Amino acid sequence: MAMGLQGAMAQAPGLRVQSQVEGLAFSPLSSLPRAPAGADGRLCGFSKPGETPAGRLVSRAGWAVTGEERLGRLQAVSFAGEFESGTSGSCAIRQGNVALFEGEQLLAIAYARPGARRSIGGVLPLEIAGQPAGLRLWDGDFLSQPLADLRAQPDGTLALLPLAAEETRCQGRAVLPNLYGRPITEARRLLQQRGWTPIPGDRANDGVGGREAALVKAGVVEVDSCSGTGFGYCRFGYRGAAGLLDVTTVGDNTVPTVSDYGVRCGGG
């Protein structure tokens, strides 16, 4: 449980919340937990105070704000109390939470349970079937990955849920399966099933070997480049009706796994 949260367990009326994700709790609250000493996000680039009224309340309480997003009538603010810089510009975020406000009134906080393997790092919008569908929580690991989806249920309950099997971008024109943690060979198959076409990369260096040449030889012709240091990132390109898709993998395995992806709507 985030530091100080047990001391802030005053119930907030009118909002039903639940967690269906192992390691995460979601509780109605009416006051912010006490920030740990030295909750300074400048080490990892979180130096600005919150931009919304709710975000500024969190900043004034001593926390470092890591994200602010709307959720219907509510304002979500992600914040954390501990940061550690790592290799290749990475950062670990610990003692992370997501607070839900209506105006400046705190209603609930999501947080990692004691002993949980992963902490909350930040929050971003989620689009499904071309419509705003809630928020996606990201973890605080050095190599951040999606942790859970925050979505409204038919009865009005706000629930932390396992990641949706599919999301959309570009107002629904780009359909993306959940690729996180999948081998690139599996990811490319799923993408092709949804209309994404591999863009052959620059093979100029094929003759001198390297990871790019090995991937091309294995049939993954869309590899664009690989890094020989740090997390061992490789980049891959795809074209679809909605635009261009960039996929990033991590690790030095023969078949690396997907760590991130993004769409450039209308590109290409």
UniProtKB/TrEMBL annotation:
Reading the lineage from the top rank, the first entry is Bacteria
Q: Per its record, how is this protein called by name? A: PASTA domain-containing protein
